[in-house]
Amino acid sequence: MDANEIEKVQRTFGKVALKKEAAAAQFYAKLFELDPSLRPLFKTDITKQGEKLMLTLATAVRSLKTPETIKDTVVKMGQRHRGYGVRDKDYDTVAKALLWTLEKNLGTDWTPDVEQAWTKVYLLIAGPMRQAA
Ligand code: HEM
Description:
Elements: H1 3-17, H2 20-34, H3 46-62, H4 71-83, H5 90-106, H6 112-132
Helix pairs in contact: 1-3, 1-6, 2-3, 2-5, 4-6, 5-6
The protein binds protoporphyrin IX containing FE (HEM).
Protoporphyrin IX containing FE binds next to helix 3, helix 4, helix 5 and helix 6.
């Protein structure tokens, strides 16, 4: 990702992070609307799960200039996700729910180039996760 894309992602994530609890709740609601069969995979409290998701995203967004520093973490996360019963196609459903959540929270800041930059971020995380699984 180039510096311009990284700046766009970091700036827009900063905005969404201001309302991260609401954004996480919207994300899971959308995810389970898109595929209700995913709901039983989540055994822990969904609010706590949302905090973990936002923390992981924050770390990834902070590390975009040095993606190799999070590669190991991402690979291990992918292996754990296989254990949770996550299937390869579920990564596409999560991508849709995540992009939808960002769009909903960013309003007019959600432009085609912001969408493209976020799609790259998702692939950066989900790519090695899927491969490791
Ligand atoms: C960018 C992609 C993703 C990120 C950053 C992410 C992040 C996380 C994190 C941080 C955890 C906490 C436990 C751990 O680290 O192992 C977790 C657990 C979990 N994730 Fe993900 N995840 C991603 C993709 C997915 C996908 C595609 C699914 C499919 C539905 C999924 C379903 C789950 C489930 C079922 C758990 C366990 C929840 C529980 O223990 O109750 N995740 N995820």
